[in-house]
Amino acid sequence: MTTASLRGGPEPTARAAVVSVPVPAAARVWWRTHSAQRKVFGYTLLAPAALYVLLLVGAPFLFSLWLAVSDANVGDPVARFIGLENFRAAWEMDTFWIAFQNSVVFLVVAAIFKSLLGTSLAFLLLQQFRGKKLIRGLVVIPFTLPIGISVLSWKWMYDSQFSVINWALSRVGLIGAYGSESWPIWLGQPHLALAACIAVNVWRTFPFSAIVLLAGFTAVPLEVIDAAKVDGCTFMQRFRHVVVPMIFPILMIGFLFDTVFTLSDLSVVYFLTQGGPGNASKILPVLAYQIGIQAGNLGRGAAIALFLVPLLVPALFLMLRNLKRREW
Fold first, then answer.
1. How would you write the pLDDT of the chain (328 residues) with one tens digit per residue?
2. How remote is the C-alpha of 36 from its chain's centroid?
């Protein structure tokens, strides 16, 4: 018997048994924590979308980069690295600068008209009237129609002899009879060809802008609008200071998608004019297709197509930066 037991204290072995040593937090397995499990679950949900983007966008983009810095041709089985030679050759082409200028004009003019028409249509569809659901269904038809059918229909409407547009204009007295100097040849005159292509692009894609704006307008609480009315705000003041700030992220995302769709719109211009007459309606996607696919110079065609990236990256950067600031 020990001295501690004689004094009434616990045995040393018993005291050691009741003392528990806490396990350090670092010794715990990290993937069993709640926060780690949440991250793993979130990344698992994002994995299919990320894989889809990498395979559908990332891989073709990297392949186009390789083509742009090589002398790849349709008839050559092996491509050699030539650096920035394709970009330099494209830079020295007069046709490239004409296509670049037409692309900027195409984008700016189409964006202005699509913004005006999309906003007007969205406000119209917010009103209550009979047949509202039918009208909403008809509005999206231009955006959902196969592009070949819709553009070929417009090509018939632009026909130099049987144009239904010219027939209607002549009926109301805005132009003269067929064969006169005032009879427009929409796809054959340099000053009208690009405008005709822009009109078809606007007709096809402005319903998308209207749908995006309509979704944003319906998300604004009516209480906020009513409070602005009580404060005496006019319609334009409510739209500028109340509605636009609340749906700004939706507007930016819609504008970004619309910019991408407009700059990469090859089908409309190619089906209508193939860039003609001359180079009056030629844009960068059409020029890249003609040089890369039709002429077989894959490297130079890829280099011309990649010149669209400098037009998109600044717009993307500014939009995402504004969205990030508004989150704070």
1. 444 444 544 555 444 444 455 555 554 566 677 788 888 888 899 899 889 888 888 888 899 999 999 998 988 878 889 989 999 999 999 999 999 999 999 989 998 999 888 888 888 888 888 888 888 888 888 888 888 889 999 999 999 888 899 999 998 988 888 878 888 999 999 889 999 999 999 999 888 888 888 888 888 888 888 888 888 888 888 888 888 888 887 888 888 888 888 888 888 999 999 998 889 999 999 999 999 999 999 999 999 998 888 777 777 777 777 666 555 4
2. 34
Handedness of CA 302, 307, 312, 313 (dihedral sign): positive
User: First CA to last CA across the chain, in angstroms?
Assistant: 71
CA–CA dist 323, 20 (Å, integer): 52
Contacts of 170 (CB under 8 A, 6+ apart): 176, 177, 178, 183
Q: Which residues of 128-161 are buried (b: 16+ CB within 10 A; e: fewer)?
A: eeeeeeeeeeebeebbeeeeeebbeebbebbeee
pTM assigned to the model: 0.80
Q: What is the 3-state secondary structure (H, E, C) of 262-290?
A: HHCCCHHHHHHCCCCCCCCCCCHHHHHHH
Number of H helices, E strands in the chain: 19, 0
Residue of 216, 197, 193 lying closest to 205 (CA atoms): 197
258 by Cβ neighbours in 10 Å (0-12 / 13-18 / 19+) ranks as buried
Q: How far apart are CA 41 and CA 258, in angstroms?
A: 32
**Cβ(161)–Cβ(178) below 8 Å:** yes
Q: What is the CATH number of domain 85-327?
A: 1.10.3720.10
Tell me whether the omega of the peptide bond preceding residue 249 falls within 30 degrees of 0, making it cis: no
CATH 1.10.3720.10 domain locations along the chain: 85-327
207's CB contacts (< 8 A; 6+ apart) are: 118, 121, 139, 140, 141, 142, 143
- With 0-12 / 13-18 / 19 or more C-beta atoms within 10 angstroms meaning exposed / middle / buried, residue 171 is exposed
